[in-house]
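User: Teach me something about this protein's shape.
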Amino acid sequence: VVAKGLLFGMSQRNQGHIFCVDAASGETQWSSEGRMGENVSVQLVDDLLVLLSDTGRLWFAKADAQGYQEVATYSVTNGSPFAHPVLEGHRILIKDQDSLICYSLGE
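Assistant: First, the predicted structure itself:
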């Protein structure tokens, strides 16, 4: 995803790490430690990255150039998610093999 001239994504290096790159120069601003998962969906809501790994871990991180900063993390499925999470208002929908789960994000 791109926000404020920054590109955020996930690389397979080190068993998966999240990174931030200056979109204009291509210069890496930061990268997280590894072991984030083999596949991660990355979405942007306001100034937060919403990340869902193939292991069922959902987490939120700040979308800025200052460094990788997790805000909150949750285990949301026992299996692998089958799709990107759907954000609707103050809810997030997560689909795994057996169910569709709806979580409230508060107000």
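Now, about its shape. The first strand starts at residue 2 and ends at 3. The two ends are 24 Å apart (CA to CA). If you'd like, I can walk through any region in more detail.
User: That's plenty for now, thanks!
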